[in-house]
Amino acid sequence: MTTTSPPIDFGTRTHSARKANVAGLDALFEPRSIAVLGASSDPTKIGGRPVHFAKESGFTGAVYPVNPKADTIQGLPAFPDIESIPGEVDLALIALPNSAVTDAVHACGRKGVKVVTIFSAGFAEMDENGDAQQQKLVDIARGYGMRLLGPNCIGSMNRRTGAVGTFAASSGVPFTQKPLATVALASQSGAIASEWVVAGTQQGLQFDPWLSTGNEADIQLADVLAHMAMDPSVEIIAAYLEGCRDGDRLREALELAQEAGKPVVVLKVGRSEVGATAVASHTASLVGADEVFDALFQQYGAIRVDSMAEMFDVCYALAIGKLPEGDRLGILTGSGGVGILAADEAGESGLEVPPTSPSLQRDLKAIWPPAGVGNPVDLTAQLMNDPKLLPSFIDACLADGGFDQLVLGVIYMGFLEPWSDLLVNGLTSARAAHPDAPIVVTASTRPEVRRAIEEMSIPVFADISNAVKVMGRINDYARRRREFEDRRASDATATDSTAVLPGLPETMTEVTAKAFISAAGIDVVPEAVVTSAAEAAQAQAGLDAPVVLKIVSPDIAHKTEAGGVVLGVATPEEAAAAYDQIVASARAYDGGARIEGVLISPMVTDGVETIIGVSNDPTFGPVVVFGLGGVFVEVLKDVTYRLAPFGLETAKFMIGEIRGSAMLAGARGAEPSDVEALARALVALSRLADAHRDRLDSIDVNPFIVRPVGQGALALDALVTTR
Amino acid sequence: MTTTSPPIDFGTRTHSARKANVAGLDALFEPRSIAVLGASSDPTKIGGRPVHFAKESGFTGAVYPVNPKADTIQGLPAFPDIESIPGEVDLALIALPNSAVTDAVHACGRKGVKVVTIFSAGFAEMDENGDAQQQKLVDIARGYGMRLLGPNCIGSMNRRTGAVGTFAASSGVPFTQKPLATVALASQSGAIASEWVVAGTQQGLQFDPWLSTGNEADIQLADVLAHMAMDPSVEIIAAYLEGCRDGDRLREALELAQEAGKPVVVLKVGRSEVGATAVASHTASLVGADEVFDALFQQYGAIRVDSMAEMFDVCYALAIGKLPEGDRLGILTGSGGVGILAADEAGESGLEVPPTSPSLQRDLKAIWPPAGVGNPVDLTAQLMNDPKLLPSFIDACLADGGFDQLVLGVIYMGFLEPWSDLLVNGLTSARAAHPDAPIVVTASTRPEVRRAIEEMSIPVFADISNAVKVMGRINDYARRRREFEDRRASDATATDSTAVLPGLPETMTEVTAKAFISAAGIDVVPEAVVTSAAEAAQAQAGLDAPVVLKIVSPDIAHKTEAGGVVLGVATPEEAAAAYDQIVASARAYDGGARIEGVLISPMVTDGVETIIGVSNDPTFGPVVVFGLGGVFVEVLKDVTYRLAPFGLETAKFMIGEIRGSAMLAGARGAEPSDVEALARALVALSRLADAHRDRLDSIDVNPFIVRPVGQGALALDALVTTR
């Protein structure tokens, strides 16, 4: 990844813009012909491997080795240059020294190539000269209407069509058996893509098609994701991500995948401080704050995983299994301990483990009296003796209607004869009765037993805790997928609203900042600006409560530091004194500061202190933040983010996902808070931030007091900064 | 597991008690002879399998089938009853119908059998009659000085000696290759033990010896752990635990393992609410609160894991690898992305990822200039081209002295030729130069490559995130092991102290409770008890601060509820009025309550509010709890536990492990708190609780205010209840 700016603007979210970014990408995965510039007769060399792999991949299009020094390359006729090739060339691979690349890209353009993939290194990843040279390549390609993958990349591969666009040795690793689980892969790291392709073959998971974006001079990961979202041959998308230069493009791609109903499983690295530093030094570019990526993935229904192993497990289960319609998990095992392990994990993975219904308990007891008929259901070791027990129990559990999904813990039945036959037969009969039920099996298995179970659309895991964890991730995804249309409609109200939003004030004081957010629909505490001690006394008398006085100055951002705040002023006399004290302190703090007066407002104490705000992320634009005040933000960093704008559904989800959300539900004997009002304020803030995305820098509403249900929520202070 | 009480008391922690509980257990794992009562000629039947397995296990002792209906069983001479056997019998296995078991146990006793294992079911796990019958078996066995495993258990197995004490089919599963990693296993579930033995063979991990304790009528899991701790042939112990009836025995066993320097890896189920309910219904017995188990494992250096997969990974890494001497992790990869994945996980696993030193950076650059020389170190794809690169980089990193352990991410080098040779050769040369360095490799591998690396004491994982997570668990263990002697010496001071502890007061009021803890060395706020409004006014005048007044009555535990508390009393007149108000409220609340006066003490506001206390766990005795006050305890449940008594080291560890510990370090601009004083109070509380373990029910010191460094910490309120 580099700092080179993208060649195609994507400012407006229009269908044509979508098309522009994915234009030509089908030539990467479904080219009719491939030219290899720098083709080698040695099948182990970078220029030789694509030719070698293409001969073995089943590719039915033409492969044209280009090498002025050879007549034939690996048995194929070679051409001295790309323009000598008689037919059309969809995809050209450049395996040439750095110095020869510019001419080669020109030649490809003249030939009418659709996509050129540049393996060669020494561009933006090297130094400024390389960066300039790379930008020139992009300009050349754009001049010909040609797309460019890389440079400094390992290319692309499609086993389905046999289209080889890579020199990665991993492309030569065969599957011993046709994989059942196929997942498209877009990666910003070539090494990661290669490793996953190889490691996938070990676990029955085929990443296909796959691609690595290298320096992303033209084609970005987001473009590839968008292409895959629209490609009907792709059902599930895996992405490895280090950073992103164009947040709108990524957002758009995830939206497309969501519309298409395709799960996107993302491994985004750099979640820790050390990791983020390593990303920065690795990519040498601005990559966006990790929390904002989290918000993005939440908002657009992507499944974020934290490791390769989790990526594989989630992709495998998505590809093999069925999506659940609800959260309720039934646990069936032949061992009490295994059932408890599943229940322990379910609690942490967002799955519900409801008790079995009385009628189900009767049904199960009728089948096998010694069974444990709570949930987890314990079939006891009889599971291994009675061939009818497993299908009968599965059938009873699913027919009862109390569970949306089942996990079976059958310990070593899948490994040892004669029990493995019993297991496969039992599952076959259960599956025939319930063809669409989401079922996951956990067992030690022999490969052929595993395969037989997988062919029934039943994923098999060795470890039940891991299986339930993965089911939890997929359950979260399925829930968000069910809620997608509602959430989208709700978010659309934020975008479509015709309510007039206020313009940015010229100068920013607490008074103008409050007026700004108030005009956007966020309640603020009643207040008056006074310009003398006498006015202060009078204002205090008009308010039936202790008041707070605060300095108003466009030059003083940190009012407390300047001695510009006095709390708990109970009488008119105290108010007059506080006025004088504040003005004196502020003058002492900054003699040149413009003082516009003193703000006087009632103290508000009956409510939960929260913080709402906006920061304008350089990659993703305005991001709304929400957290509880006090120790929650300052000690526990208990905050959550969403990209602006969004609707009420999203706002309510935000409110529910902080760790301290119990505070708003009425913890410690307090009344429940007016979370509806809080949610409306978050939506209003998101609209305001979106409207001013060009000039706004940040909004900080702190504290924002959420009062008991029905009494609303209001800002006690606000700070707005602009660029 | 059952509710039957254990046959041997273990109240006093003496060497003889230790011996009593492990007496005879060597006959389970190293018997000279085995008799099978109910032996069958059918090798697939429960009575046939032990005979069948013993013939194939390499057991060199005698095997005596006992069956009155046969002359020979599976080619061995059979005996009509155990007493007809000519030689001595160390281990007898009972595979008879429930009704025949009592007579058989008698016969075994008369024969002088050392341990009798009862496979038969239908005892305490069934009903009250079964429980009574089981207790009779224990009495019979004890009368003969014979130990008893089970009933309702699958027995024991020792592949090393060939001693077969089980009918588990898993015992017949062969290893295709002699395993490098061998771990002893004690399990409370037969199904779990069988599954792990089978699943282990799939992952190169041999659980041996292993045993399942069934109903635990006599031999408990703790006894087996203690035996394994003392058995020189055992190096690592794995335990599967659902609950515990005798906390002292388990504590003692873990202590023995710690003294012996043997890691104990524990999977304790029931950590979630649903899981705990399932445990309770599965074991039908009191099993101890999960948090207390957590405290126990922390305190005695056991490694708690949450899944079978984690159990296998931790055991494997312990068995294959080397223990680190410190927390500093060096990350070496051939892919930037893989390095970042490792760094991300290290941050969450308690491993430090220090930057490389300038001299190391120079050294690495000298070897391969394009390398990324921060930590993670990125060798780039050159890793796969230059055979000397990997050993040179490993050598430089270890010679530098800045890292205590290394993780290598070599992606698919271990899978594809010719790179796998390069990898093995590179590691061989690095290992020769650094024979004791803790190194972990992450790679896709072929089995023979993996084996070659493991033989260098280098564990191999497929996933780098998982590898680092496991390294983190082992690092925690290694740290606690290094600190063990210090911590033990510190804890011993709590036990050995000769300071006189106060007796339990006769009646419990706030006044006597505070006096009780004060006498134990915990500071309490200065206070006076007044018995009239006039005295209250006088007392207020003598204190230079606002005061709090609280009712003193042995009959009123919840003072606030009774209107018995008034805060912030600033003048003598207010104090007099508050006195009258409190007494009137208390009388209205409970007309029969004995009122001993009103407590008056200064308000203390400068400090961090904490809660310290004791609850007397039915299984493990007094447990000290610590948490921060307010939302930390009430909303976030941010508390930690330790078994009493303990010393300062343990107390400080407790203080550091709560999530909100930053509050005590001086968060939000506050001064750092006097954590030394807090730690001393926790130690004092633990000693007090230990001294009164027989009659104490609970102590609740809330709030306990920790003031700034040097100013101590003091109790503002205390509640003590007795049994």
Automatic annotation (TrEMBL), chains A, B:
The lineage of its organism: Bacteria, Bacillati, Actinomycetota, Actinomycetes, Micrococcales. Pfam families: ATP-grasp_5, CoA_binding_2, Ligase_CoA_2, Succ_CoA_lig. Residues 28-123 form the CoA-binding domain. Keywords: Ligase. It comes from the Bacteria. It comes from Janibacter alittae. GO terms for molecular function: ligase activity. This is Acetate--CoA ligase family protein. InterPro entries: ATP_grasp_subdomain_1, CoA-bd, Ligase_CoA_dom, NAD(P)-bd_dom_sf, Succ_CoA_lig_flav_dom, Succinyl-CoA_synth-like. The keyword Ligase applies.
